[in-house]
Design a protein that fits this description.
This protein is of the alpha/beta class and 237 residues long. The chain has a single domain, classed as Class I glutamine amidotransferase (GATase) domain (Rossmann fold), CATH 3.40.50.880. The protein is 30% helix and 21% strand. It has seven helices and 13 strands.
């Protein structure tokens, strides 16, 4: 059987002017029975259109802060490095592949924030300075150990595949969902109320999580999330 082919958004190192990738992203896809294709960082729409048409689904990886201009805010002093090329490239892929063609997509960390912004929501530019009562969402290395608890909403899609009410996750972010986009629904919350997992009910499969399953690809919850993604890719293909 032909393996589903998943486009993986590249990571960008500004100082080295180079693309790179954490192996856990592709390993999680391989564990779920898919093949990964790491995309270039490009704004050439003729190239992006070919990827959108050819690939079966897309993995939106972690990385830079989303530029606050995308949700109508000025960048404050706490906002970290942004990458406008990534913002624009991912916006194109999301709109063409997910919105127009209903192709499955999974977002991780930056991915959940990006999905929310592209669908009309907003972010905390910096959780510690803008969200009173927040727990610590930015742990120190190593990242393959849990940092805090996430409460899974009963009867949500995430609850249906895991069968449990809470999990312990790693956490390495300082931005997060502020105003939730109307087209998204929450699947899990941190103890402080921050959205940790969302989905888009109107599409075959648009899920996103705030934690980093790629740092423990052999974890059972990580496996179930990627399996759910690839199962829907195969169903939609």
């Amino acid at each position: 059987m032909k393996q589903p082919l998943i486009g993986v958004i590249p990571l960008w190192d500004e100082k080295k002017e180079s693309l790179w990738m954490l192996p856990g992203y592709t390993l999680c896809l391989e564990n779920a029975g898919a093949a990964a294709l790491i995309l270039p960082l490009t704004l050439k729409e003729n190239m992006l259109k070919q990827y959108v048409d050819f690939l079966d689904g897309f993995l939106f990886t972690g990385g830079h802060d989303v530029n606050p201009q995308m949700y109508g805010k000025e960048k404050n002093s706490f906002c970290a490095e942004t990458c406008d090329a990534r913002d624009k490239m991912e916006a194109y892929i999301f709109n063409e592949a997910v919105i127009n063609l209903n192709k499955p997509a999974l977002g991780i960390c930056r991915g959940i924030q990006l999905f929310n912004v592209l669908l009309g929501g907003s972010l905390y530019q910096d959780i510690p300075s803008e969200f009173s009562g927040a727990i610590n969402h930015r742990q120190m290395p190593p990242y393959n150990v849990p940092s805090h608890r996430v409460n899974i909403i009963t009867d949500s899609p995430l609850h249906k595949i895991t069968g449990i009410n809470c999990i312990d996750v790693n956490s390495c972010h300082h931005q997060g969902i502020n105003v939730l986009a109307e087209k998204l629904e929450v699947m899990a919350l941190a103890d402080d109320g921050l959205a940790e997992a969302v989905f888009m009910p109107s599409r075959h499969f648009v899920w996103a999580v705030q934690w980093h399953p790629e740092f423990y690809p052999n974890n059972e919850i990580s496996k179930k999330i990627f399996a759910a993604f690839i199962n829907q890719v195969q169903y939609a293909s």
